[in-house]
Design brief:
Layout: H1 13-16, H2 18-24, H3 38-48, E1 55-59, H4 65-70, E2 79-84, H5 87-99, E3 106-110, E4 123-129, H6 138-148, E5 149-160, H7 162-170, H8 178-197, H9 209-215, E6 218-225, E7 229-232, H10 239-253, H11 262-271, H12 279-298, E8 304-307, E9 310-317
Parallel strand pairs: 1-2, 1-4, 2-3, 4-5
Antiparallel strand pairs: 5-9, 6-9, 7-8
The structure holds S-adenosylmethionine.
S-adenosylmethionine (SAM) binds near residues 61, 86 and 112.
């Protein structure tokens, strides 16, 4: 099922295997809940005036994490609508809302970011998290988000710079030579270039969003970053450490790199202009890094202060 005037789809990995996507994106479990501190969001809510919001739209809501994370910072009677282009995620979001007794305030419907099925100026707040990194044409999605925001209303995007985030991992305690760090980063760069070329989005769009917000005609642009930073210190006894490591150890056990598993990474790498003959050696580096990481964690000798570039970029639709 698609919305009537949805644009011709680029490749949509989440459609091919929603169950796998739910697992890899951390839609179940608590990992996404580690991305923000509620006291930091309280500060942001005050600065951004979220107390004025009566109707909010969460674009590309997935299982609903981001909307639910923001909800405590909106007035108690504010309504949240979530849209996504994958039915299976919306079902999960609706179930989660019922489980938290939020179903009176949250509703979910099928829609593409590029053609939102709402009249102009329908919402006080239009927001998204880790969605613009997946769309073929972020300018088009932002224009649509702006259209459904009321004049003077807020557009708020939480989007990362994943190339920088990969480097943060590589700078943790797994011993990696400078040449291997460069090769791994280049692999990621080429995969990201391939992802862009295939119309699957820009995994490191965060740093480009102020420019895209300006180009979309937004005003009062502000940029913040999550204050979260994973402390990873043996014996990894805290709850956040256990959750964070269970996700990354799980990925590394199956050699799922930041760009996906081997086949998906190869597809993106080639689309990004990587040489086919170089890929096996690059992938052996990924495997070696992942194996060393798992070994170090299991032996209690992995240390890290894993910072995240996960920006919170806000802008207003100009009042009329
Ligand atoms: C990484 S998930 C993020 C989900 C949620 N925002 C969160 O932070 O938990 C990306 C989501 O964006 C959705 N998505 C990607 N492109 C989209 C588009 N063009 N229109 C609507 N949803 C889209 C995907 O289906 C997926 O649920």
């Amino acid at each position: 099922m698609t919305t009537p005037d949805e644009p011709a789809p680029a490749s949509r990995p989440e459609h091919d295997d929603p169950a796998r996507y739910i697992e890899l994106a951390g839609f179940e479990g608590e990992w996404r809940e580690l991305w923000w501190d509620q006291d930091f969001l309280r500060l942001m809510a005050r600065r951004l005036g979220l107390g004025e919001v009566r109707r909010a739209l969460d674009v590309g809501c997935g299982a609903g994490h981001w909307g639910r994370t923001l909800l405590p910072h909106l007035p108690g009677d504010a309504e949240l609508v979530g849209v996504d282009r994958v039915e299976a995620f919306l079902e999960l979001a609706a179930r989660e809302a019922v489980a938290r007794e939020l179903d009176g305030r949250c509703r979910y419907q099928l829609a593409a970011a590029e053609s939102l099925p709402f009249p102009d100026a329908s919402f006080d707040l239009v927001t998204c998290q880790t969605v613009l990194i997946h769309v073929a044409d972020p300018a088009r999605a932002l224009a649509e988000m702006r259209r459904v925001t009321r004049p003077g209303g807020l557009i708020l995007a939480a989007e990362p710079d994943n190339l920088a985030n990969t480097l943060a991992w590589l700078n943790c305690s797994v011993e990696t030579s400078p040449a291997d760090v460069r090769a791994l980063l280049e692999l990621q760069q080429l995969c990201e270039a391939g992802k862009r070329a295939l119309g699957e989005g820009d995994s490191s769009i965060g740093g480009r969003l102020p420019g895209l917000f300006m180009a979309a005609g937004l005003r009062d642009i502000s940029v913040h970053n999550t204050d979260k930073c994973a402390r990873l210190v043996p014996p990894y006894a805290t709850h956040p450490e256990r959750v964070d490591l269970s996700v990354f150890v799980g990925w590394c056990r199956e050699h799922a790199w930041f760009t996906g598993g081997r086949e998906d990474s190869r597809r993106l790498y080639l689309a990004g202009g990587g040489a086919a003959e170089d890929f096996p050696a690059r992938w052996r580096l990924v495997q070696a890094w992942c194996d060393a990481f798992v070994r170090d964690v299991e032996a209690g000798r992995f240390y890290g202060a894993r910072g995240m570039l996960h920006y919170l970029i806000a802008g207003r639709r100009a009042p009329e």
